[in-house]
Amino acid sequence: MIVLVLKELKSNWRSFRYPAFLLIVLFFAILDPLMLKYMNEIFDYFATGIEMVIPDPSSEESFLSYLSDVSQIGVIVLIFMTMGTVAREKETGVTGWLLSKPIGRWQYLAAKLLVLYAIIIAGLFACSAVAYLYTMSLIGQPPLGASILATTCLVIFTIYIATITFSLSTLLKTPLQAGGLTMLYFFLSGIANMLISNSAAANFYPNTLLSLMKPLLDKTATATDMTWPLIITIIFILLLVLLTGRRFSLMEI
Questions:
Q1: Which of 22, 54, 110, 209 could form a disulfide with 157 if both were Cys (CB 3.0 to 4.6 A apart)?
Q2: How far apart are CA 85 and CA 87, in angstroms?
Q3: Rg for the chain (alpha carbons), in Å?
Q4: Is residue 184 exposed (0-12), middle (13-18) or buried (19+ Cβ within 10 Å)?
Q5: Alpha-carbon distances, residue 44 vs 21, 34, 71, 240 (angstroms)
Q6: What is the pLDDT of residue 127?
Q7: Domain residue spans in the chain?
Q8: Which of 126, 106, 130 is nearest to 118 (CA)?
Q9: What's the rounded Cα separation, in Å, for the pair 179 and 161?
Q10: Cα separation values, 141 from 37, 136, 223, Å
Q11: Overall pTM surpassing 0.90 (yes/no)
């Protein structure tokens, strides 16, 4: 198992898939506080002759801007980085070669998921710490507890989308099929979230985690409000992993 995990780490490092995702997240962690801090100066430089006064941003707005960018652009990038995790190896015959050795199919999938989840959890919390400290140095200190809760919402939702992409990559023939279907789900789920955000169903919908980031930072929501969306999303993740592993164990490679 350890050998498989190390192989997966080396493979993703060489292909620059997950490092690229982390660099993009870090880009937003640094850029967003900087842009908000100097937004008036930027408008003055590019909009000569036009008077426009933008209120000074709050620290909560700065940190939320980072989280929002990652929850959209960062997640889309991760979908493209993850869509070939298994599908590409099936295409090239690497999966069949590995499984011809004394390696179980569950071990094969587990090693990939461990690396994927570790990159997401460690990477997002580390980049959020950078965004938090940079915001604190430029604008002010966001509430620490609320920032951790909001980041947790982002991390769990990102893992959820990554698991969907991984599952489709495992079960479908090509990376494009896996990435395309996940992108379609991502956009449709966002539209559905707007429709049910004020209903009781929102408590059982994964996208509610993203909707809670702003209320958590504004302190109009608490950790209790994220309990059910968090539990439901984790249950969905576990079910996806179990069903994917079950189906993969019966597939001909």
A1: 209
A2: 6
A3: 20
A4: exposed
A5: 33, 16, 30, 50
A6: 96
A7: 2-250
A8: 126
A9: 11
A10: 13, 4, 20
A11: yes
Amino acid at 11: S
Per-residue model confidence as pLDDT tens digits over 73-132: 999 999 999 998 888 888 888 888 888 888 888 998 999 999 999 999 999 999 999 999
> What would the pLDDT profile of 8-42 be if each residue is shown by its tens digit?
778 777 778 888 899 999 999 999 998 888 776 66
Spatial contact of 30 and 134, defined as CB atoms under 8 Å apart: yes
Amino acid at 134: Y
Residues 6+ apart with CB under 8 A from 72: none
Instruction: Determine if residue 207 is left, alpha or beta; phi over 0 gives left, psi from -120 to 50 gives alpha, anything else beta.
Output: alpha
Q: How confident is the model at residue 53 (pLDDT cuts 50, 70, 90)?
A: low
Q: Rounded CA gap, 160 and 209, in Å?
A: 11
Q: Are 67 and 32 in contact (CB under 8 A)?
A: no
Distance CA 12, CA 71 (A): 22
Nearest CA to 123 among 70, 72, 69? 70
Look-up: residue for tokens 């993740």? 237
